[in-house]
Amino acid sequence: MSEPKPSVLFVCVHNAGRSQMAAAFLGHFGRGAVEVRSAGSAPAETVNPAVVEAMAEAGINIASETPKVLTAEVVQESDVVITMGCGDACPVFPGKKYLDWKLEDPAGQGVDAIRPIRDEIEQRVRGLLAELMPNEAC
User: Fold this and answer.
1) Per-residue pLDDT averaged across 100-109, rounded?
2) Where are the alpha helices (DSSP H) in the chain?
């Protein structure tokens, strides 16, 4: 019997930048071995176009992604919840692993300012994946 896939939820306020980048990196590097979700406490209408451009430079297309609203159900369905500046808006349930990644908000910034945020998120996601799947190389 195979182990169930670990599930990770990335949460930021607008689900238009940081959480979208993190989810895209984890989906890319996890190669289907991790269930990936992202959501926002006050989702924007669209993903930040400069974030889409920065991710395209990294070889990952997130142009078709849309911000999603944070619900208690999506938190309950996740093993690991990683917040990125959503404060107290994220519901807390027992038995979940919570991490808070302090990252600069890419909202209103150009691609040049977003690149270092993207690169930091990539490194954190690689570290997370190594924790979740210690026998896999990414």
Assistant:
1) 93
2) 18-30, 49-57, 72-76, 111-132
